[in-house]
Structure formats: structure tokens, C-alpha cells
Specification:
about 230 residues, mainly alpha, 10 helices, about 0% strand, transmembrane, membrane, transmembrane helix
């Protein structure tokens, strides 16, 4: 674009139109394409100086960028997940399933680490005195709370378990059975998730693990039915 070129205001553009305006958007399938005759007719009616070919090209690009449809962006993380899943789908069943589960675990670990570091950076870590007070109140359930508010490594570990059972295990079930998850497998996944999460967090009482696993299985069954209703 030349230095002498000035972008006209909407009022100037409107004044330059004939009784049948020329729409400068050639990227929308619902409008007619712009012919060179239309472009020259529009450009020569504008009160500015400079090379007409450069001005015409600038006008078309400007309108195409501002009004043309944009392709949906998946994002770096979703593209990476799609590429990993595609690669795992081409591998043998054990290798593909194991690789995708490991990827989800590492993904959750990294997210948890960054999340906790970010929270501590802007909100500050929880004082040790509050940890001791919560420990005296919560008793045996304190490890569950600590898994969400502890050090970055503890929080990252918790996110790794969550990501593995939320995304990795359903992928494994689909690969092994060839079908989508049903209510029974959803309840089994919820029970296994609660047991694993409790064990990793340090709450390893058999009675507590069984109770939390049972409650988690019911919650997963409810979410499965709710998903069927909305689907």
C-alpha cells in the first residue's frame, strides 16, 4: 500500500456508491464475485490519489479480512490431542492404548503443575497454619483436600489421575470393545478413578476407599444418564 493512500471513511464510501452498491467481499459464497469492471468503477469514483491497482488490491484484502468467514481454530492442544489419537489408532491395540494413556497422564501432570504455579504466583500459597487447622478438622479426609491445594507436584499428580480416567480409559474401552462406553463401564471407571485417586492422595483406609468408590460410581452413572438425556 502506498504512503499516499488513505482508507476512506464509511460515509465517503457510501457517497461513492451508485444506486446499486458494489459489495466488496469476494470470499462469501452467498455474494456475487467481484469483476475487474466493478472494482475499477468503484475505485475511480473515490476521491484519493495513488496507484489504482494497488488501491484496488488493498480494498479487496481489507474487506475480505474483516467480513470474510474465518475457519474455526482447534487450538494447539486440541490439534496435538487429535494427532496423538490418530497416531495411536494406527498402532497395535496394546501399544496404541498404552501410548494414549501415558499421553493423557503427562498432559494432566503438566497442566496441574502450571495451574498450581500460576495460582501460587498470583494468589500466594496457603500458609502452613491453615493446613494444620484443616487437618485437625477434616481428619482422615484431609489428603483429598491436600491433593487439590498442595504443592505443584501434588496437584499435578492429581490432575494426571483425573486426565487418565477421564480421557485415557474411555479411549481404551472403545479400542478394546469397539463400542462407546455404556453405563456399566462408566460406573466401573468411576469406581476405579475414586480408588486410584484416594490411594495416590494418601487416603488408603479400605473402608473409606470402598465408600468413596461406591459414591463415585453412582455419580458417574448419573452423569452418563444425564449425557444420554441431553444427547
Amino acid at each position: 500500500m502506498s504512503r499516499g493512500l488513505m482508507i476512506p471513511s464509511p460515509s465517503v464510501i457510501k457517497a461513492a456508491y451508485s444506486h446499486r452498491p458494489i459489495i466488496l467481499n469476494n470470499s462469501c459464497s452467498c455474494q456475487y464475485p467481484i469483476s475487474p469492471t466493478h472494482v475499477n468503477r468503484f475505485a475511480t469514483s473515490l476521491p484519493w490519489n495513488g496507484n489504482l491497482a494497488t488501491q484496488n488490491k488493498s480494498i479487496i484484502i481489507l474487506y475480505r479480512r474483516s467480513t470474510g468467514p474465518t475457519e474455526p481454530s482447534l487450538g494447539i492442544h486440541k490439534k496435538l490431542d487429535a494427532n496423538i489419537k490418530n497416531w495411536c489408532g494406527k498402532q497395535s491395540l496394546p501399544i496404541g492404548v498404552a501410548a494414549y494413556i501415558v499421553f493423557q497422564a503427562v498432559d494432566g501432570l503438566v497442566f496441574g503443575l502450571l495451574f498450581k504455579i500460576f495460582v501460587d504466583r498470583f494468589l500466594g500459597p496457603i500458609p502452613s497454619s491453615e493446613h494444620e487447622a484443616a487437618k485437625s478438622i477434616l481428619g482422615v479426609y484431609y489428603p483429598l483436600v491436600l491433593s487439590a491445594v498442595g504443592s505443584p507436584l501434588i496437584v499435578g499428580r492429581s490432575f494426571a489421575v483425573f486426565s487418565t480416567f477421564t480421557f485415557g480409559i474411555p479411549y481404551a474401552i472403545k479400542r478394546f470393545s469397539g463400542n462407546e462406553e455404556d453405563m456399566l463401564t462408566s460406573m466401573m471407571r468411576g469406581f476405579a478413578y475414586a480408588v486410584t485417586y484416594s490411594w495416590v492422595s494418601g487416603m488408603r483406609s479400605p473402608n473409606l476407599i470402598a465408600n468413596i468408590g461406591f459414591i463415585s460410581a453412582l455419580v458417574y452413572a448419573f452423569m452418563f444418564k444425564a449425557g444420554e438425556g441431553t444427547g
